[in-house]
Amino acid sequence: MVDEKHVTGVIAVPYQFRERELYILLLHRKKSEKNIWVGWEFPKGSLDGKTTNQAIERELQQEANIVKSRIRPINYRGRHHTFEYTFYESPEKMIRRLMYVFSVEVEKTEDIRVNGKEHDRYIWRKYRDAFRYLKKRNMRRSLSIVKKVITGNLHHY
Known about the structure:
By secondary structure, this protein is α+β, with helices and mostly antiparallel strands. The protein is built from three helices and ten strands, in the order E-E-E-E-H-E-E-E-E-E-E-H-H. Helix content is about 20%, strand content about 45%. Strands 1, 2, 3, 4, 5, 8, 9 and 10 form an eight-stranded mixed sheet that branches. The longest helix has 14 residues, at about 135-150. The protein starts with a strand and ends in a 7-residue tail after the last helix.
């Protein structure tokens, strides 16, 4: 029998505008005993008893040393944009995650540093390039929606 656990979390899509170009911050998840998936992603994490705003601030600071930023929930189709995914922590333990998506305008003076625990490096990429780096469909869709919101094609709350 498979044990099923439901977890709610947050995901941040960090960005900056540089000379009218949209740049996206990506973190590279490294392989470890806990992390079997390796690749480029956004800062993310579980609520762990916090509000979504508290959790997104915590994850930004823990995963990328981001403390000076403008965080906004993404409104899509009249509600906060979310996505769900499922993975197996072990053959007997299934995790279902519901993730709330936020845009994060990062100050240009911010000293980005990965913590080394989950991620081993970071890159800033123009939107098109960032989209190509992302392999997970939900991350690509979130990036696309965030771009529309911050360039004026959709609206924040």
